[in-house]
Design brief:
Layout lengths: L2 H5 L38 H14 L4 E2 L3 E5 L5 E5 L8 E5 L7 H5 L5 H11 L3 H22 L12 H4 L19 H8 L5 H31 L26 H15 L1 E2 L9 E2 L8 E2 L5 E5 L5 E5 L10 E2 L11 H8 L9 H6 L13
Parallel strand pairs: 7-10
Antiparallel strand pairs: 1-4, 2-3, 4-9, 5-6, 8-9
Helix pairs in contact: 4-5, 5-8, 5-9, 8-9
């Protein structure tokens, strides 16, 4: 069975954008409240990565970062976004133009796998765009890792969003990211068996495992080629003389781990598409996705008439304060906490590890038994 046939099966229908994306409303509307062994991370401290992210973002045309904005460690764990000085209500904090956002257009126009990703989207129907986006993210990350192995003299693959991709949670614990996709089978059985989160957690893991097979067939040859280096071709090198990409025989080292990280990034960080013609298709919005969750957000965000996502202060914000977004839209305000955990990897308002709550058989995860 080919990967296109695999992608056409009903399993991918489960990856519907409405399941996990955060939403952005128009600004005029009223407010509502285990590390992969085969994939080395590019060597850089977390602080350096975020400094590189901010530098890259500032160079994107039509982008804007308020001078008061910064990224640093959060008391809640990991890194978060802060303002160093007082910010007034409705003050613009960040502008994220289309060129700074990772969209389906980047996926389908990718020079390596764009045609295959486009076919996947067309053949798979609902959910195909999510799998294609995950494949694109995984491929770019693996190429980024290959770049990190090369010396300064060696030619490196150009990665459009390299500074941003370096900050994503490719492994468990990066920026304090937890997620059931990173868990071992043993941990899933140990902690989740009998809980209200078990069915959805195992469903997500099964779906991602299947999608990994599809993605491996698409990006595997590119990753293998990058590890082998460009083949020598007799001069003059004509287009038809280019040798075919390496044959993929089984799962390519590092792909499964990278795909998990890609899906964790999409599940926990993606927003509803704001690019023209990309309605209801996820996209990643750098900087906005750095904001941690709160039931009482102090920012609002939405797209303006020019297609730029603007992040503005919902109220006056005191200097030194952390910026907070709300991960759930109006339609999801009643989302149970156990489902919030399987989607975003944490329980809102609690700093205690989820594994501790699971061991205690907390009613957050386990239905209360009726007394007889």
């Amino acid at each position: 069975m080919t990967w296109v046939q695999l992608a056409s099966t009903a399993v991918l229908l489960a990856f519907s954008p409405q399941r996990h994306v955060r939403t952005s409303t128009m600004l005029k509307m009223s407010d509502t409240a285990t590390a992969p062994p085969a994939v080395p991370s590019p060597s850089s401290s977390q602080g350096e990565k975020y400094a590189s992210l901010l530098s890259w973002f500032n160079e994107v045309p039509d982008s804007y970062i308020n001078p008061k904005f910064t990224i640093r460690e959060s008391p809640r764990g990991g890194f978060g976004a802060f303002v160093e000085e007082d910010v007034s209500e409705d003050e613009l904090i960040v502008s994220i133009p289309p060129g700074a956002r990772v969209t389906i257009a980047d996926v389908t126009n990718d020079p390596d796998c764009g045609k295959a990703f486009k076919t996947l989207i067309e053949k798979a129907g609902p959910g195909g765009s999510t799998v294609a986006l995950a494949g694109y993210l995984a491929k770019e990350y693996l190429l980024l890792c290959e770049n990190a192995k090369k010396s300064e003299e060696e030619e490196k693959k150009e990665i459009k969003f390299s500074s941003y991709f370096n900050t994503l949670p490719w492994k468990r614990g990066v920026n304090s990211q937890e997620h059931v996709l990173f868990w071992s089978e043993a941990d899933v059985e140990k902690y989740l068996t009998g809980s209200m989160a078990y069915a959805e957690a195992t469903e997500i893991r099964d779906e991602v495992a299947f999608a990994t097979t599809v993605i491996n067939g698409i990006i595997g040859p590119i990753i293998l080629q990058s590890r082998m280096g460009e083949p020598e071709v007799a001069w003059p090198a004509l287009p038809w003389m280019k040798p075919p990409p390496p044959k993929v025989d089984g799962m390519v080292d590092g792909v499964a781990e990278a795909v998990k990280g890609a899906f964790v990034s999409i599940l926990t960080r993606s927003f509803e598409g704001q690019t023209a013609g990309m309605d209801e298709k996820e996209e990643l919005q750098p900087l906005l996705d750095m904001l941690q969750h709160s039931e009482y957000p102090n920012i609002r965000h939405g797209v303006n008439s020019e297609g730029v996502v603007e992040v503005r202060a919902r109220k006056d914000i005191e200097g030194g304060s952390e910026l907070f977004n709300q991960y759930r839209g109006e339609e999801e305000l009643n989302m149970p906490y156990h489902r919030f955990f399987t989607r975003f990897g944490f329980v809102p308002g609690l700093t205690e590890p989820a594994t501790a709550l699971l061991e205690e058989k907390s009613t957050i995860f386990f239905a209360r038994k009726k007394e007889v």
